[in-house]
């Protein structure tokens, strides 16, 4: 049976790749033009094209997104979204399901990918985790972004979770920025991305559902850096408990 399904899987992967690149090529000229509008204004314009790309690709390849609101935002104040990270599909999903405008923190290595790297460079705040000075620059840029009224998105686990645990340990960055800027954190869960793209290998991509759970925000009003460990643990516990409830 597996031998019969394998050719179908590769036809599906080829189709998904063509749609992925095709829509990207379609929006690339507009992203190039928007890149001249500046870091904030141009970046916001770019995200509306990326929203179109994500909203086109996912249904085209049979991946259907379901939103579950435990909290539905009514205001437009910036948030720090903290999201579990299990596969590379998370980033493609984020631009289609998070409230615009926002900027994610992303690995600087992704800028080296042909074509995609140009878009990535203008869409994320890149971070080189191997360089302390580069990490500090990224944090300063994220803080400046929030102060311009733009939300940010951080995967606090830092990298994809390849374990059987709901979450791996969190880094401090998102919580430090939240306290310094007094910006509320909103935990968000991506439930099925690991099933749609197991082990982040494109040859394992498959159609199906992707559920997004928007959890209530966590206020940091009045907190200082002394509260950081407790805040980080609070958010971890909230997300872990909710993830376990869906297993």
Structure characterization notes:
This protein has 247 residues and is of the alpha/beta class. The protein has helices at residues 2-34, 41-60, 89-97, 116-123, 132-147, 173-181, 193-196, 228-245; strands at 63-69, 80-83, 102-107, 125-127, 151-154, 185-190, 208-214. The two termini are 28 Å apart. The chain has one domain (63-245): Glycerol-3-phosphate (1)-acyltransferase, CATH 3.40.1130.10. 32% of the residues are buried.
**Could you give the distance between the termini?**
28 Å
In CATH terms, the superfamily is Glycerol-3-phosphate (1)-acyltransferase
In the predicted model, the low-confidence regions spanning at least 5 consecutive residues are none
Shape: globular
Query: What letter string, H or E per element, gives the SSE order?
Result: HHEEHEHEHEHEHEH
Present the secondary structure layout.
Layout: H1 2-34, H2 41-60, E1 63-69, E2 80-83, H3 89-97, E3 102-107, H4 116-123, E4 125-127, H5 132-147, E5 151-154, H6 173-181, E6 185-190, H7 193-196, E7 208-214, H8 228-245
Parallel strand pairs: 1-7, 2-5, 2-6, 3-4, 3-5
Antiparallel strand pairs: 6-7
Helix pairs in contact: 1-2, 2-3, 5-6
């Amino acid at each position: 049976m597996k031998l019969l399904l394998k050719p179908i899987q590769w036809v599906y992967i080829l189709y998904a790749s063509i749609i992925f690149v095709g829509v990207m090529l379609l929006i690339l000229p507009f992203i190039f033009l928007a890149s001249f509008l500046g870091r904030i204004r141009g970046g916001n314009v770019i995200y509306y094209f990326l929203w179109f790309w994500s909203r086109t690709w996912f249904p085209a390849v049979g991946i259907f997104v379901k939103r579950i609101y435990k909290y539905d935002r009514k205001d437009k104040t910036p948030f720090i979204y903290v999201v579990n990270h299990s596969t590379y599909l998370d980033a493609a999903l984020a631009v289609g399901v998070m409230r615009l405008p926002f900027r994610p923190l992303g690995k600087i290595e992704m800028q080296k990918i042909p074509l995609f790297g140009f878009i990535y460079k203008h869409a994320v705040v890149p971070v080189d985790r191997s360089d302390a000075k580069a990490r500090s620059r990224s944090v300063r840029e994220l803080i400046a972004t929030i102060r311009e009224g733009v939300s940010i998105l951080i995967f606090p686990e830092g990298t994809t979770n390849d374990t059987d645990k709901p979450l791996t340990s969190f880094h401090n960055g998102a919580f430090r920025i939240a306290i310094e800027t007094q910006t509320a954190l909103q935990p968000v869960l991506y439930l099925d991305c690991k099933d749609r793209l197991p082990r982040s290998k494109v040859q394992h991509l498959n159609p199906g559902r992707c559920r997004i759970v928007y959890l209530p925000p966590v206020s940091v009003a009045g907190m200082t850096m002394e509260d950081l460990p407790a805040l980080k643990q609070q958010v971890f516990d909230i997300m872990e408990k909710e993830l376990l409830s869906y297993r």
